[in-house]
Structures are given as C-alpha cells and as structure tokens.
Amino acid sequence: MTFATARRYAFLALAALFLGAANPATARSDLTLAMVLEPPHLDPTAGAAGAIDEIVYANIFEGLTRIGANGEAQPALAKNWDISPDRKTYTFHLHQGVKFHDGAAFDANDVKFSLDRARAPDSTNAQKGLFEAIDQVEVIDPATVKVTLKHPSGDFLYSLGWGDAVIVGRTSAATNKEKPIGTGPFKFQNWAKGSQVALARSSDYWGAKPALDKATFRFIPDPAAASAALLAGDIQAFPSFPAPESVPQFQADPRFKVEIGTTEGETILSENNARPPFDNPKVREAIAHAIDRKAVIDGAMFGFGTQIGSFFPPHHPAYVDLTGERKYDPELAKKLLAEAGYLDGFKTTLKLPPPVYARRGGEIIAAQLRSVGIEAQIILVEWAQWLEQVFKSRDYDLTIISHTEPNDLNIFARDDYYFNYRNPAFKTLIAEISATPDGEKRNALYGEAQKTLSAGAPVAFLMQFPKIGIWDAKLEGLWKNYPIPANDLTAVKWAE
Amino acid sequence: MNRSLIIGLTITLLVAGMALLSYAWTPYDATAIDIAAKLQGPSAAHWFGTDHFGRDILSMIMVGSRNSIAVALVAVGIGAGIGIPLGLVAATRGGWLDEMLMRFNDLVFAFPALITAIMITAIFGPGAINAIIAIGIFNIPVFARVTRGAALSILSREFILAAKAIGKSSGGITIDHVLPNIASLLIVQATIQFALGILAEAGLSYLGLGAPPPNPSWGRMLFEAQTMIGIAPHMALFPGLAIVITVLGLNLLGDGLRDVLDPRN
C-alpha cells in the first residue's frame, strides 16, 4: 500500500466515523450491570447461592411458572394449567416450538426429567423441600404434563417458579455449571472468572424478544469501587448496591435513578441453639432485648432497611408487626440474664461474613451486647469459611446473616439447619401451612408462626434487607423489589 | 545539634506519649458507639470529628497508636532478636554455613514483605499476634544482612587480629568487639524497620488482617473511611495523617541517629 492509498483509507475511515455519529442514534441495546458476589457456578438447580439466580433466572433458564416483579406466580413454559377439585393433580399445558440454546427441542419429557432429577434421592438441589409434595410426574403427550401431589400444597405453583425448579435439558443438564443451557431469552456467552459473565440475546426465543441484545454481569465486591464504576459509566446498573452511605450522592445526581425496594432478606443475629448458654431461652430473650434495631439499621445501613420482630417480610399480606414484642430494653436484658444464672454476663464469639451489613452491624451489636454484660469477641471470616464453619459445621456461637430466600419461615422447622433450633409446635404449624391453600386461613397460620418465633426467640430478628437499586436514569424495566434474587432483563430497555 | 534528630525525636516522643496517655485518658471511650452523633466534622466537642458509628476519631487514633506501636515494636524485636545472631554467626563462621544462611535469607527477602505478611495472616487467621509474627518474619533477613555486612568489615580490622593473637575466643570477640562497633548501625536500622512495621500493620488492618474490631486500628479506620470519602473526608484525613506523621518522625529520627552515631562525623 502506497502512502497515498493509506491516506485515502484513513480518510474513508474518518468519514465513516463522522457519518456514523451523524446518524440518528438508535436506542442503545447493551447493558453492563454489576453484582457484589460472583457465583460459584451457574446451575440454579445445584446451588443455594443467590448470585447464581441473579444472573441466570428468567434470562437463561425458565421454569413451568415464573415469579414476577411483585412476587406473584405467572405462566412461563407452561402457558396454562388445570387443577383437579381435590387440588392434588395439576395438568400443565406447555408452550410448543420452544428450543434450548443448544438446539434441542423442549417438550414434556424435559419437564419430567427436570422435576424427577431435582427430587431424586441423590439430587444436589439446594431446595429439595420445594418438590416435597410431588408424588409423580407423567408425560401425557409432548405438550402436556400431569403432576400428582401427595397432599394439596398451597404454594405449589409458586414453588415451581423458583430458580431451583427451572427446566433443564436432558442433554445439557450435566454441564450447566460451566455452560448453562436453558430456554430463556438470553444465551450464555462466556464467563471470565473473577470478572464477568456475558449473555447475548437468543435469536430463536419462543416468547417476546427482549430489547437488549447484550448483557454483561460484572462482579464488584468493593463498595468504593462500586460507586466509582457507576460514576465512571463502566457499569450502567447496580441492582443491589452495596454502599448505603453513598446513596444520597446518587439521589442528588440527575444522571442516575435510585430505587429503594424490598427483598426477601430477613437479616438476623443467628444463635447456636445447641450450644450453652444459647440453649437457655432466657439468654436468647435477653439478647433480643439487648439489641437496638434502629441503631443497627441507622449505623450499618444508613437508615435503609425495615425493623422486623419475627422471620417474615413486612410487605407480605400475612405479616404481623411484632417489633414491639421484643423491645430494646437493656435493663430487662440484664434481668433475664441474671434469671438465667448469668449475673455477670458471659463471653462468646461473633463470626462475621464479609458483607457490609454484617461487619458494621456486628460491631454495633457487639457494643450493645457488651453494655448488658455479654462480651462477644468478633471474628471476621471470609465467605468460604462462613459456609464451611458456620453454615455446614455449625461451629459458631453468634453470626449475622441475611436469609434471602422467599417464604423461608420453614427453616426454623428443619432439624438439620444451622440454628439447631427444635420446636415441635412450630413444626406442626409449618406442616399445616404447607397443606393449606392460599387465603385467609393460611395467612392466619403464618401469623401464628411469626408469633411462635418471636416468643421462642431462636435468633434475634434485626431487619428486612432493603434493595438499593441504582442505575442510569435512561434505563427502564429493572425490578424495584427482589421477590426472589433475580435480575430479570426481559423487559429492560433504554429510553430513546 | 542535628535538626532531623530533634524533629524526629520530638515527633516520636509525642506519638509514644499519646499512646501512654491513652491508657489513662482519652476524650471519649474509643469504642463507645453513638449512632446519633455519626459523621460529624471536627468541632470543639470532637476535635477530629466522629466516624460512621459516632465514635470519637481523636480517641480512636490515640488508642489505635498503642496497637501500631506494640505490633511494630515486637515485630522489630523478633527481626533483630533472630536476624542479628544469624548475621553474626554467618560473618564469623563463614564457609558453607554463611552460604546457607545467606541464601535462605535471600529467599525470604525475595518475597515482597507485605505479600508474605498477607499469606501468613491468611493461613493462620487475622489477629494482632499473627500480624506481629508476619511482620517480624520479614524483618529477620533485613537485620541478618546488615549485621553480616557490618560485622565482616569489622572482622578484618587490626584490633580483631590483635584480640585473636592474644587467644580470645571467636564468641568473645564477637560480643566484646564486633557487636559494640556495629550497634549504631543496627539502632538506625531498627528505627527504619520500626517505621516500616507501622506501615505494614496499617496495611494489614486495612485489608482486615490486623487486630479485630472493636479495638481501633489506624489501618482499619482508613478502610472504613474509604466509602465515605465523599461525605466525611475527615474520617480518612486524621488516621492518614497519624500514619504519615509517625512514619515521617521515625524516618527523621533514623536519619538523625545515623548522622550523629556515624564515627566519621
């Protein structure tokens, strides 16, 4: 190439650049959003980590039903269903012409395969309880599935909408952890470990095509870096923003929209009920009265978050406000400790995982406990350590954590759960709830359950975790609330 | 009189005095949380303002200085206590022992100090004791190397030859003649290592690997200030200044001591 031609090419390139810029810009169609935690893998049917669902739910994978922005069960792969009068048989009519991202066709056999796989004895599903009611799954024809229940279940359709109940392909199920293949509107592109996961619009999606053609989930664990990345425009959305102290700055900036919503995250001070002195109900009551929830929310979350008095979200219709039952009362706490035989208090440990709410909240709670005589030594642990030591091995005294699953009141009825809490009356209530259909009777039972937990004080209830969403002011369609941990991108678009 | 010695000594004594004073008195309880008083700027009531929990920053800096000084002091003690004998043995024995010790020294020295410290605290868990051990270990080769070099130059002098001639044991020569002659050099080195120790401790607590809360520490104060720099810059300013001034003071002291103790002056 001579010098002259080189110059001509350069000119052409430059002209193209200007022409491109002069064209009326079509709406932007890519999005980079950030999350705090990187998921361990990308198979929602094989892990409890909320970070998995935050990427794949409704984007890559779909279930028979799906949970919408307001927490309601909606049709998804099942376009509709019939329920028998005894509420024990559900007949699902499936969408036809649906394909998995690897080209395999979706039909009733995949539904049977997925549900049977999830409830098999050797299943690694983190929420096997969702499928507990299922007696058998039968394929009627490629577009019809009949599910028979052992007993009527009030929230069966809702359970099927969880990320743990999505439909996976028979040929791809084994490799979903690294290369997730679903039926959703977005295809998995690649995963740069430690950095980001990229999705692209699926060209043969069966439903309405999303407006975005590219979506990248970036992992930013550091709150200071989170603010910087938003301000610099490197990311355009942080659906669950980790630095509440920086929120006023974004609220004042017209380039951003700040949405404070709710989550299903009941944040609690967990106590090891099997370990003295926490096996003594009076000690647990004393701890509940020693904690000033308002100070915890103001100090750790800069006022974002709602006080709770039991293990139930305030936005749920069956919520009962029990925050007055265990009021902040250090004198009463001391009296209860004395009655329990700990006149001079005691020494214990408080293991804190990395999130800001736990680290900051832990410091405040340790100070509050100290003022009633309980000396809680703070031990900072990383996530892997927390899961191993606290959650799995139950080697802890106190810890702070947010339980983000929806409708997870039943964890207090589980003998194998890390609280080590045993309450037969509560177990009976949970069994009754699960057999009662949605409605007033069920809500009344939920109320009973909340009161039982408040009275038994297995743990200290702190707050309902807020969803602090910050994104570009021109971005539309992201969820305000987290009825389940998910970033559903199907309705997200850029305003013209 | 040497100017950097005076300035350095004054700052060092002030910091040490502040740490001692904190045992008897601080303006407020350094761990007392008062959420209602959070994020206040400097005022007459709180000279350095308050942090995100409403704690008094001046009190936290005063109490935090104890932690910094204690960790750095013990770490330098470990480094000197092990490093100096190693250096002396290597210099007087020579031969394969010298080679072995010094190559091992190089090995430890080759690892970046802070990375080594992070590794140690990551393996054994965060805490003041592990931070001390971590910082102490990377001080060992520094002292061993300085000691060996200085001792070798002394060992070739005539008076050592004379001592050997009258039948003095090599251990006796080392203690009576070598050590006093290199002491000034080691004191200067210790001062500088002390400053580095304070920085290392701040670095480790910044990363969450130092003393756990509620004990205040300068590094963690900086970490906590990081996300609030836009709304409460004083939270970062004062602990930052405390670290800068202390390290500067110690470095000036080291410089001054080198000038004053240098026999050629």
Strand content of chain B: under 5%
What is the number of independent domains of chain B? Answer: 1
Largest interface: A-B, 22 and 19 residues
CATH superfamily of the largest domain in chain A: Dipeptide-binding Protein, Domain 3
What's the quaternary structure here? heterodimer
Biggest sheet of chain B, in brief? none
The average pLDDT score of chain A comes to 91
Tell me roughly what share of residues is in helical segments of chain B: over 70%
Strand residues, percent of chain A:
15-25%
Which CATH class of chain B? Mainly Alpha
Q: What level of helicity do the residues of chain A show?
A: 25-40%
CATH architecture annotation of the largest domain in chain A: Roll
SSE arrangement of chain B, N to C = HHHHHHHHH
Signal peptide (chain A): 1-27
Keywords (chain A): Signal
Family (chain A): Belongs to the bacterial solute-binding protein 5 family.
InterPro entries (chain A): Peptide/Ni-bd, SBP_5, SBP_5_dom
List keywords for this structure.
heterodimer, A: 496 residues, alpha+beta, Dipeptide-binding Protein, domain 1, D-Maltodextrin-Binding Protein, domain 2, Dipeptide-binding Protein, domain 3, 3 domains, seven-stranded mixed sheet, four-stranded mixed sheet, 13 helices, 19 strands, B: 265 residues, mainly alpha, MetI-like fold, 9 helices, elongated
Describe this structure in words.
The complex is a heterodimer of chains A (496) and B (265). Chain A is α+β, with helices and mostly antiparallel strands and 496 residues long. Chain A folds into 3 domains: 39-175, Dipeptide-binding Protein, domain 1, CATH 3.90.76.10; 180-261 and 467-494, Periplasmic binding protein-like II (D-Maltodextrin-Binding Protein, domain 2); 263-465, Dipeptide-binding Protein, domain 3 (Roll). Helices cover 28% and strands 23% of the residues of chain A. Chain A is built from 13 helices and 19 strands. Chain A has helices at residues 3-22, 50-56, 108-119, 156-159, 223-232, 247-251, 281-290, 293-301, 330-339, 356-370, 383-392, 424-435, 440-456, and strands at 30-35, 65-67, 73-75, 78-83, 89-94, 134-141, 144-149, 186-192, 196-201, 214-219, 237-238, 256-271, 306-307, 346-352, 374-380, 398-403, 460-472, 475-476, 493-494. In chain A, strands 11, 12, 13, 14, 15, 16 and 17 form a 7-stranded mixed β-sheet that branches. In chain A, strands 1-10-9-8 form a 4-stranded mixed β-sheet, with helices on one face. In chain A, α7 runs antiparallel to α9 and α12 (424-435) packs antiparallel against α13. Chain B is mostly helical. Chain B has one domain: Orthogonal Bundle (MetI-like fold). Chain B is 74% helix and 0% strand. Chain B has 9 helices and no strands. The model of chain B has no long low-confidence stretch (mean pLDDT 90). The interface between A and B is medium-sized, with 22 and 19 residues.
